Amino acid sequence: DGMRLTAVGAGKAKRILALATAHHRFNWIHPFPDGNGRISRLMSHAMALKAGIGAHGLWSVSRGLARGLEPGDAGRTEYRKYMASADAPRQGDRDGRGNLSEAHLVGFAEWFLKVCLDQISYVSSLFELDTLSKRLERHVLITDGLSPEGNWLLQEALIRGEFERGAAPRLTGLPERSARRVLKELTDAGLLASDTPKGPVSLRFPSDTQDTLFPKLFA
After folding, report:
1. What domains does the chain contain, in order, with CATH numbers?
2. What is this structure's pTM?
């Protein structure tokens, strides 16, 4: 089992590394007369989703490439600088096996992945996911028409991702009829929803909750 998990981890690491290397090599090949940059950014976005780190589009590779790591104008020139560096021809027999420099490609990949981490950290700071549980609890307490027990249902959805409707009495500690009422309050408010009328419910974030649930997300 340990060997198998290690192999799975190595496979995911290769997919993440391929984000950077494929992004450069695609642009270097330049297969289309126009739009190669946009296509490579879309490709990187799709590859991030495939690798399991795309977070359903919550963070953007494109934003990071445009801004870079350094503040101001210096950061906005980093992308072209690192791309051009990775275009350099092979520097001797120990610099890879292809026509292009492997060492400079490694430099581009390191910068690219740091940009990705920077964007993930930035978005995480806006969402403040580590305190979302407390903000959900507060939202229930200050919102008219929501019972305090609804907090337990929201916390379950936050932790588990989704839960069956029939679990509401156990989660709230209420009789079945009262638990159904609390669940309906949350679904009517748009905080919980499901793909089918009787399917498991998961968290939703209606636009009218942004001030309490994500106070820093929008200006």
Report:
1. 2-127 (no CATH), 129-213 (1.10.10.10)
2. 0.74
